[in-house]
Amino acid sequence: MYKKTWGQAYPYAWLDEVVEVTLNPEKTNVVELEFQQLEIIAGQFDQELQSVLRNLKASTFYLISSKKIKATVTQYYDSLILLERQAMENLAAYPEGHPLATTGETIIFYIRNMGIVFKKRYGKYITETGVDNSITSAKRMVVSKLLCKLSADQIGIILKAADDTKTVLASSMSVIFRSVVPYLSTDKNKNLSWDSMRKSTYHIEQSDKEVAIATLEKLILKIKGY
Predict the structure, then answer these.
(1) Cβ distance 86 to 143 under 8 Å?
(2) Do residues 107 and 42 lie in contact, with contact meaning Cβ atoms separated by under 8 Å?
(3) Residues near 72 by beta carbon (within 8 Å), at least 6 away in sequence
(4) CA nearest to 216, candidates 146, 138, 159
(5) DSSP 184
(6) 104: closest CA among 33, 188, 56, 170?
(7) If residue 197 lies in a helix (H) or strand (E), which one and from where to where?
(8) What is residue 168's three-state secondary structure?
(9) Residue range 165-179, pLDDT digits in tens
(10) pLDDT over 50 (residue 141)
(11) Model pLDDT, residue 142
């Protein structure tokens, strides 16, 4: 199932199959996937993305027209963003504590890193056309995460409170963390682990609680002034 088929015209064929079918809870009983299978997928995923990058380089090497280069690069980049969106939807639906979550996070990390590479190498050719507004927003987030001036533990406290008070509704607290945390970074950590942040809320430090409260109080004062 996971072997690459050489000579395919579509460079994302294997990646699409994995993200849209194999790891998609709506199409596959993903909880039955064995740990060894998940390791194989995660191990090959980055290799396949590197293959896509090589394919893109080869596809644009002999192109003289900037218009043609732009069209090719945009097509590759938009496909990457579509892949990232499906991977995020998959991750949000995985059961808590299952190895699938680790695999899902790894895959999203690889996709986002490749998005950064695309931007650095072909940024002037990438356009916002070809994808809808939600994809465009996701695209910007891949390149530049939102920097939060709180620590990971302090962010976790606020997300936990949002779940406990039903300010944010989800099937579980894990879904909230999985959906939000991958788009955040802190001064000390650019790649936050949603699971580690969730687990930190089991043992909340008083100092972190005080900072979270002070931050929320600032927000309250700001809102009152509107």
Answers:
(1) no
(2) yes
(3) 56, 59, 60, 63
(4) 159
(5) E
(6) 33
(7) helix 194-200
(8) coil
(9) 999 887 788 888 888
(10) no
(11) 42
Q: Which two tokens stand for residue 93?
A: 């639906």
How far is 147 from 108, CA to CA, in rounded Å? 18
Phi, psi of 146 (to 5 degrees): -75, 125
% residues pLDDT > 70 (the chain): 88
Q: What pLDDT, on the 0 to 100 scale, is given for residue 136?
A: 43
Tokens of 45: 């995923």
Maximum distance among all Cα pairs of the chain, rounded to whole angstroms? 62
Mean pLDDT of 185-214: 91
Distances (CA, A) of 65 to 11, 42, 72: 22, 37, 11
Rounded Cα gap, residues 34 and 42, in angstroms: 13
Q: How many residues does the chain have?
A: 226
DSSP state for residue 223 in the 8-state scheme: H
Segment holding 147, helix H or strand E: strand 146-147
The CB density around residue 39, as the number of other CB atoms within 10 Å, is: 14
Tokens of 35: 């740990």
β-pair partners for 184:
146
Mean pLDDT of the region 118-129 = 82
The single-letter code of the amino acid at 43 is: G
Is residue 189 predicted with pLDDT exceeding 90? no
